[in-house]
Structures are given as C-alpha cells and as structure tokens.
Specification:
single chain; 2 domains; lysine biosynthesis; 248 residues; Rossmann fold; seven-stranded parallel β-sheet; alpha/beta
C-alpha cells in the first residue's frame, strides 16, 4: 500500500483525489494538509511541518507558496514529492531542480494523460510543420484560475519551441497594430464560468489548418493522472520526473 500525504486536501482537486483514491486498492491517503482543517477521513494538519504521519509520497495540489515547506519536509523525511501546482517562478523551478538531486521529485504542468500524449506528438511534428504553418495556442479555464497563460499552454508552447531550430518568441494575446511574424507562437487565455480546461494548438497554413485539441470534461481526469504518478514515484531514486516518464 502506497501511503500519501495530500497537500491541499480540502480544495476542489483535493476532494476529487480523495474520492477517487478510495477506489484504488494500491493507494491510501494517510494524512492531509490544508489551512482549512475541517474534520476529514484522515488526520488533517494546517501545515506540513506539523504532520507526524509516516508516508511514501507527498501529493501537492495547492499553491506555489507551499513549495518551500514541501521541499524542506520532503528532504527531512526522505519522501518523494509530486508537484501538480502551476505558476512557479523561475527561482522556484530552480529550487525544485536542486531538491531533485537529493529526493525524487515529480513536476508536471498538467496531470492529464491525454494532454501529455498530445505533448509527445508535438515533439514529433512541430519542426516539420513550422516550415509552412503559423502556430497559435488557445487555452480556456474557469473564472477562478489565477495564472495566465496556463502552465499547460506554456508546457505545449515550450515543447514546440524546443523542437524548432530557429529562435521562437511567445506573444501573449494580440494587442496593437502589426502583422504577426512567422517565428512567434501566439498564446491566448480565456477565463470564464466553470470551464475545467481546454487547450488547442493551431497550425495555420496556406489553404489548410491543423487543429489539435484537448478538453477536460471533469477534474477527475487530473486526479487519475495524479494517482498514477503516485504509483510511478513509489520507491524511485532521487531525480526529476514528469508525466512523460509515466506515459513512456
């Protein structure tokens, strides 16, 4: 049985993960961390530093502000950490990379298996299509999402950019009067209602358009991926891992 500490357990994703974990005989959430310490199915602590329950992995669906305490706890207890939070700064990403030299750390901008399959496809096709196609990314999320563009849009954009030998620039939205240049990728964010998550990559050429789209119908799709990551990270050696490792 893989023992999980769930950080952000009383958030929207935390509740979905808790419900789904009860159907998985390989996993058990043994403790939760949340500022809202309402009574739950397992002990809940206001801060991970106060958690005294032994576990195999920490699963984080919270905010970037929790990173320092998670990394410190993970190193002190020698526990694998799975980071499903987005919006990290460059400095925080460096801290994650440093921690992975000592403990196993998993980080992914999107826990959906489908998104990560698309990301893998983009690695194979982007360089070829770039010759004759302009590239744009549109992402849509609910009106409570804080960061824009989404971590997933940046994940897809960086995959495309890294696949192309030329210098590629990101342009967030379209403001002002000017023509687009070929060596840019436009990234557009839509926020409204209760949209769980939509990401569309458009390759627009002369006389034809290729569209690759992923729609998350419910938050459960991210919970499924997160729990698969917990299984994957169990007893891993130190290092930095992602959903690409899981689907491979």
């Amino acid at each position: 049985m893989i023992r999980i500490i769930l950080n952000g357990c009383n958030g929207k994703m935390g509740k979905v993960i808790t419900d789904l974990s009860e159907k998985n005989s390989k996993l058990s959430i043994v403790a939760g961390v949340d500022k809202n310490c309402i009574k739950g199915k397992f002990p809940i602590f206001p801060d991970i530093s106060k958690c005294d329950v032994e576990a195999d992995v920490i699963l984080d669906f919270s905010r970037p502000e929790a990173l320092n305490s998670l990394l410190q706890y993970g190193r002190e207890k020698n526990v694998a950490i799975i980071l499903c939070t987005t919006g990290y700064s460059d400095d925080e990403i460096k801290k994650i990379s440093t921690a992975s030299k000592y403990i196993p750390v998993f980080r992914s901008a999107n826990m959906s298996i489908g998104i990560n399959v698309i990301n893998k496809v983009l690695k194979d096709i982007s360089a070829f299509l770039y010759k004759n196609f302009d590239i744009e990314i549109i992402e849509k999320h609910h009106n409570q999402k804080v960061d824009a563009p989404s971590g997933t849009a940046l994940l897809l954009g960086n995959t495309i950019r890294d696949s192309i030998s030329e210098n590629i620039n990101f342009v967030n939205g379209r403001e002002g009067i000017r023509k687009r240049t070929h060596n840019e990728i436009g990234i557009h964010a839509v926020r409204g209602g209760s949209i769980v998550g939509e990401h569309e990559v458009i390759f627009a050429g002369q006389g034809e358009t290729i569209e690759i789209k992923h729609t998350a119908i419910s938050r459960e799709v991210f919970a499924v991926g997160a729990l698969k990551a917990c299984e994957f990270m169990y007893k891993r050696e130190s290092g930095l891992y992602s959903m690409e490792d899981v689907i491979s």
